[in-house]
Amino acid sequence: MSQPDRRPVLLIRPDGNERDARALDDHGIASATDPYLVTRPCDDPMPAHRFVGLLAAAGPQTALIITSPRTWGHLESVAGRGPLERALSSALDQRIRVLVTGRGTRGALPGPLAERAETAPNAEALVELLNGTVLPRLRALPVPAVDPVALLPGSAIARAELPEGLRAGGWRVLRLPVYTTVARPEPPASVGPLARGAYSAVLLRSSSAARALAGFAGPDGVPAGTLVLGAGPTTSATARALGLDVVECTATDPTALAVEVAAALGAPGPSGGAADELGPEHPSRRADIAGSAFLRAARGERPERTPVWFMRQAGRSLPEYRAAREGTTMLESCLTPALAAELTLQPVRRYGVDAAILYSDIMAPLGLAGVGVDIVPGVGPVLDRPVRTEADVDALPALTDEALEPIREAVRLAVAELGATPLIGFAGAPYTVASYLVEGGPSRGHERTRALMHERPEVFARLLDRVAELDIAFLRAQVLAGASAVQLFDSWVGELAEDDYLAHVQPASGRVLRAIGRLGVPRIHFGTGTAALLRAMRDAGADVMGVARDLTLSRADELLGGATPLQGNLDPALLSGPLADLDAALARILEEGRRAPAHIVNLAHGVPKDADPQVLARIVDAVHAGPHRKEGH
Ligand code: CP3
Fold it and tell me: Which ligand 1 atom lies nearest to the CA of residue 492?
């Protein structure tokens, strides 16, 4: 068989790309995510209001059918949360039936509704369930002869099979279009790399995706060497009509679809992952840790108090750190479990921050794998030998499970002392770690790294893939040993343009983030100077986006469509200035954070070494005191 195509598959759905990306991961197929579509509420608000009225008046003869995770959110935004909740609670009291398709859809519903919902894998199964089982039972009820009603709120451009199938079975079907899917207002950054052949394929999952691709890429925008894959006959027919040369796939479920994509690309069979690796004893499953302010905010909830921690909270600004570190090198201290655990705990004891971060370094996994690296005080990581050629990349050692034992032990020791405070595990993202490897040490503009990216993209991709493998091993070890969240630091990625990020970096970062997403812990992603990349970094698979100082939290929230919890972003420079300025900046950040889906307070970058611990303590206390509340409550 010929060499499999290693270029990433481009995913362009408005959301929900992560499930496809994970299924492709199982076949070793890289992917990049750049939505070409957005969903928004329909211009006409009447169907949403009508839905609320119908729900409020519904009885046992009513079936509520929800087929997309987007539906409920759009209903809330048009009809208002209060009226919708009241109508729902009366409908549930009246014992309406609730049916949903897909696990993702159920997960997006409010608790009481999700609890009541019966789940079908797809539209055909839903029709069968409603016509074959539900309808005969309703007909047998001793109620006046009213037609059973199917309420079907959803997309204005939904396909007609479901309502037609239900009508044929005898339901009165009320379709209520509440949202629609349209091409993104501005051209996506991946259009350039796509035209230059950076992707092995584009996956189309809907007719609107086909139209968006044809619109943005133009008639010659997809080169001959890039496949256009259509999921299902309708999407493929639309794409064909638009002049795209489509490979039609029959499956629409991500797992089955990935098998067909793999076959089209000549990739090997699936490797598959184990389910629920953490088990019920994992710290993140304990009520006190799961219910902590930090983890609640990371899941997008609004805990009573806003959580706060600091990047590089363990370190030279603390006298107890300097004392404990005396006589050991940085990397030695990371690999001495009792010391690493102690340094992890110090800032939690001193400040009462809402999360600990493991004391380690982004270069630690390289050291553990046997790469010659030192962390030189006042300089940073320095490599014995830079990695610049294909042979250098191939010579990089892998990380064995055994080598990770000191990390696991440090995590276990720290978690045993942390009580209800969650521990964050971390790693340096493939680009940032690769920049140290290629440059051989800290560097201003990372010119050699970007030269490798442009001149030898296949070597660069291989390098990032190798780092991604180290990252996955390092992060998995931390989580399996007891960390309840992770942060992936891509400190220097902000120097890239969005199209280069999408073509050369996001596939590797996405692989790392998804591998940890499988474990079920929240993933924070952070870089500096990332205004142009924030959305693409989130789409790599982050649950929380760290914001540096090039953006206000409000602007970051806007860039992310109001959909992602934020972390940040007090400028570390304020720590040494007048306290009044610091207090004012903090008040503004808290205020902006309240308008985001959720907020974790942090600095915009690491704690500087000359920071005054008392100033950090003041920030923690101010955040925990909360806003001055008016009118009781
Ligand atoms: O946040 C924490 O408290 C956890 C520990 C942590 C360290 N490094 C400990 C450390 C974390 C999360 C890191 C991440 C890290 N390391 C990053 C990404 C975050 C960022 O700042 O953008 C990067 C780029 C590195 C690489 C690195 N390691 C640098 C640039 C330096 C500073 C070198 C210097 O002396 O100026 C280090 C050393 C390092 N890592 C120290 C600590 C506490 C200082 C070492 C010492 O005290 O001698």
Answer: 22
